[in-house]
What does this fold into?
Amino acid sequence: MTKLRNDTLIRALLRQPTEYTPVWLMRQAGRYLPEYNQTRARAGDFLSLCKNPNFATEVTMQPLARFSLDAAILFSDILTIPDAMGLGLYFAEGEGPRFERPLREEWEIRSLAAPDPDVHLRYVIDAVSQIRKALNNQVPLIGFSGSPFTLACYMVEGCGGTDFRQIKTMLYQRPDLLHHILDTNAQAVTAYLNAQIEAGAQAVMIFDTWGGALSQSAYLEFSLHYMTQIISGIKREHDGIRIPNIIFTKGGGLWLEKMIESQCDAIGLDWTVDIGEARRRVKDQVALQGNLDPAVLFASPETITNEVGKVLASYGQGAGHVFNLGHGISQFTPPENALVLVDAVHTLSRPYHKE
It folds into this structure.
């Protein structure tokens, strides 16, 4: 395999020395970019954009043409797996994702099966291969999936943005059914991420968007347990190259010490956690990714630069930090402000990496 021209992200995730702190942005290919909106209009709708490898490659590459980011992330959606399970994913205008057939009946849950990514999610795997070729080894490609619990929230509730009444009722009244969903999801995510790695993903991330809605005991049993299961089953190496992994639980700052036990390489942090305090707690056993509040990008260039500096100073000297937002970039973000952030990270971080 040809060596990456810029492997700063990979080295940072493995806590190896780097010249500066690498940066990429969650949801970096998205509605804040005019060129993305133009491609999406050509595709017709969001699902058509996701399911066409040519369009997925085009939008994955767009932010790299604008900003000197240190990684590309596959353009897809976390709900590809439950869609492949036959739940009928669709996107209602202004309402986000919905499922035609949410899981409510025991027979539906018992008959749930993990899809074969090479068959039912071929469009994603083809997109990964195509994006790797387009990147031409400039920067690494990050593959991803939703966590078993986050996927289950959508699968049981039928949509996002809920009070979790359906899934929490199942969790406490019929935990056996929820465990069946989660185990099936974990098998599916493991196979899916391994297929992405085989197709060319050079790092992988698990997005646990809704794990922070749980109590500690429920988080450990119904979310972290299954992410740990995935990490034990995904490839750590491919073609002789180490493939680092990242887990991110939004609202999970209380459980960092428990998250280390998953044997992950890196933990993503939302903006509610002080990254310096997080570093002290994890004792450099894992890399940390994060964790600027996305709302900072609505401020002036001076404020953005200042807030970037605060995150870098809090993390401090040495390796093991990947700069990112604490959640996805807002669709209302001015693109020029994202440029300020990326340039500030690259400029301000260099003193923290001098011996």
Summary: The first strand starts at residue 72 and ends at 73. The two ends are 31 Å apart (CA to CA). The chain has 16 helices and eleven strands.
